[in-house]
TrEMBL record:
It comes from the Eukaryota. GO terms for cellular component: nuclear outer membrane. It is found in: Nucleus outer membrane. Belongs to the TMEM53 family. Signal peptide: none annotated. This is Uncharacterized protein. InterPro entries: AB_hydrolase_fold, DUF829_TMEM53. SUPFAM superfamilies: alpha/beta-Hydrolases (SSF53474). Keywords: Membrane, Nucleus, Transmembrane, Transmembrane helix. It is a single-pass membrane protein.
Amino acid sequence: MGSLSGILQRPLIAAAAVGFASISSDFPVILPPHKSNDSELSTSSSSSSLSSCVSHISDSKLANLSFISRIRVPVPNINFPIPNSDCSNSGHKLLYSSPALLNLYHSADLGKAPNPPAYNKHDDISSTSLPEVSYRWHLPEPKAVDVSGTSDCSSAKMRTVVVLLGWLGAKQKHLKRYADWYTSRGFHAITFTLPMADIIKYQPGGKVEDHIDLLVTHLADWLEEEQGKNLVFHTFSNTGWLTYGVMLEKFQKHDPSVTGRIRGCVVDSAPVAAPDPQVWASGFSAAFLKKRSVATKGTTDANESGMDVLVDSTGVVAPKPAVTEAALLLVLEKFFEVVLNLPTVNRRLSDVLGLLSARQPSCPQLYIYSSADRVIPAGSVESFIKQQRRAGHEVRACNFVSTPHVDHFRNDPKLYTSELTNFLEDCVLTCCKQCH
């Protein structure tokens, strides 16, 4: 996007000062309520647990599950019953470790960060101190893995990595719920986030580019190891969407054939296919103000007591922003009117948005959005969907109507997961449709 260091930092800090008195230290966890799975995975109690081994499964049975052999592998203690199924629960085996199993249970080797610990899905994130890293690899749940290799559905999932690209201000803990949903169904998942400070100070060749390069190189290496491995992308807001565009650029430069391994793309709360100052202002305002922003509120009852509301031309009723937020939005919008028209910034954005509009992979697409989104207008998403359909892409879409920006999963988890399941089974992994 060109060099925003200095250009972007001081005006943003000045603008943010309008609302900074009400800003807390962490971004909101906009994830759905959950009972036992709400927790972040924690480190194992000692390094000896990383090498705990068991042996009764032959390497030949696990050979087709080898992944990322060149990456250091922290391995959790495993002694779970694994269904040996063709989409049924007809039998169980106990997993015992072997050299091939070490390759299955792996984590990403992160640059400039400690090697990720081995996780236990049910450990409590509140009691665990984990470093904030750019990306983290999440393993399929053992109960979702068919080590016998007899299930085509399980094998297809095990050879697919879902790459979750976070929204502006998202942290690893915010994306974990989505990763848990995918891993519980047998997929690998990667959660990728960009620190807010790095985005504000963005410049070509800087930290943002380093983070994305690291992930692109890792995924390219994983895909090259053997045939049959694929990617699915799940992006959030315009930040995740633009990150996806930059990754596509880098894949095409590294190896254009990689884009043919992308089997699907889920787009949550995006896109706006043009550099719109109002959208950028809304996004940064929501990131600064967090739960105090109207962007975190959905549609409401116009008669609800004590709340000022606005009714737009379509009849949608939404909360009215507070004075501080209205002032911050105004300052940010004026600021981005200047920044987004800087030649280097405009050229970079145009390149990425042009690729996403006209040169996306031929894979199916799913758009999840809402008429109540105060950051990304529903009309912009629907216009882009029409454009993609005219270009011949297979496109599905679901308007959640009343849910806020990147908050659809928490507000309506049943509909959200139903849309994901149908998309994955019908469009991405068609062999799994027969098993359900």
